[in-house]
Amino acid sequence: MFDRRLITKFDWKFLLIIFSILLISTLSLYSVSVHKGQVKGIFYIKQIYWIVIALTVFFAAMVIDYHTIARYAYLIYGVVVFLLILVMLIGKSGLGAQRWLSIGFISFQPSEFSKLGILLVLARYFSENARGDGFRMSQLIFPLILLGIPFLLVLKQPDLGTGLSITFVFIAMLFLVGFHSRSLIFVGLISLLLAPFAWSFFWHHLKPYQRERLMTFIHPTSDPSGTGYHIIQSKIAIGSGGVLGKGLMGGTQSQLKFLPEGHTDFIFSVFAEEWGFIGIFVLLVLFGLLLLWGVDVAFKAKDSLGTFLAAGIVGMIGFNVIVNISMTLGMVPVVGVPLPLMSYGGTAMVTTMAALGLLMNVKIRRFMLFY
């Protein structure tokens, strides 16, 4: 039965921040889709459909007690791993990657769901095994295995961006649980010794286009009409926006199709060109408020499970925001990380809103006496 106390503890300011970012996203996708009355795509229409579905998921994730959800963490994790294996066997390929599963007319990306799977299972493990003096290395073997299985399956697709994102969920939680001092020294020494071998393994398992992206990051002007084209055009778009921007559908880089993937990886560049420095400032403030709200939830959560869930969500969303914006500015290699709540993509939208629903879940239940 629905608990009416959830309504009284609901933080409407949080929802207002989310709706503000979603509105900015829809306007940017509309700009990419329509020019001078000619429809070039239906990204914004599809995104509205996904937003409606994602809002439903958001409220479901908020209403069901997160303790109840955590009870099924290992089952959810198992389903996610199964879907990732299915992608490897029968997944749909596109743009040099095999990342999608198709059911009828719907295609979705299971690697996005892996973020929720690893978030839930790690939060449950760390909350059940927390120690006052920090974790020893032997206690980290199992969570590293839990992380490693989906990480390797996602990397196989290949989807380096999502692999790094789920890794950062793990890192965010480690900051809370802490290391035993001896274990920290041991991990540091082992990491230094294994770093050359890890890099060699990592480099040789990258696809050719992924290697080209990394080399382009180092020398972006070495191939301006090829691998460096995205970054160069993105910088031009952001810089040409100036202080006030060129207005909705006024950006030349996006409207004239100089900027590729303007609806996904480079939607920030589209927005920056049209709304300028003022628009960028507003968007960054919104994301900043969203993340600070999440940090506050983590510190004030009623129990360790809630703290770990909130920390993992903040780490996941914060990582995606920082990496995506840095990517469009040429500060990090292009690794295909979407901008949360902004980039076009149904699976990413549903995953992000589910995570935010869990965040609200943790907050409203810290005021309740009984679960």
Please give the structural blueprint.
Elements: H1 5-9, H2 12-33, E1 34-35, E2 38-39, H3 43-63, H4 66-71, H5 73-90, E3 92-94, E4 97-103, E5 106-108, H6 110-128, H7 137-156, H8 160-177, H9 181-204, H10 208-218, H11 229-240, H12 252-255, H13 267-300, H14 304-328, H15 346-365
Helix pairs in contact: 2-3, 2-13, 3-15, 5-6, 5-7, 6-7, 6-8, 6-14, 6-15, 7-8, 8-14, 11-13, 13-14, 13-15, 14-15
List keywords for this structure.
371 residues, mainly alpha, 5 strands
**What composes the largest sheet?**
3 strands, antiparallel
Strand order of the largest sheet: 3-4-5
Classify the helix fraction into a percent range.
Answer: 55-70%
Rg over CA atoms: 21 Å
- Helix count, per DSSP? 15
Report the principal-axis shape.
globular
Show unreliable segments.
none
Portion of residues in beta strands equals under 5%
Main structural class: mainly alpha
Mean pLDDT: 81
* Quantity of strands, as a count: 5
The secondary-structure element order is HHEEHHHEEEHHHHHHHHHH
Distance between the termini: 13 Å
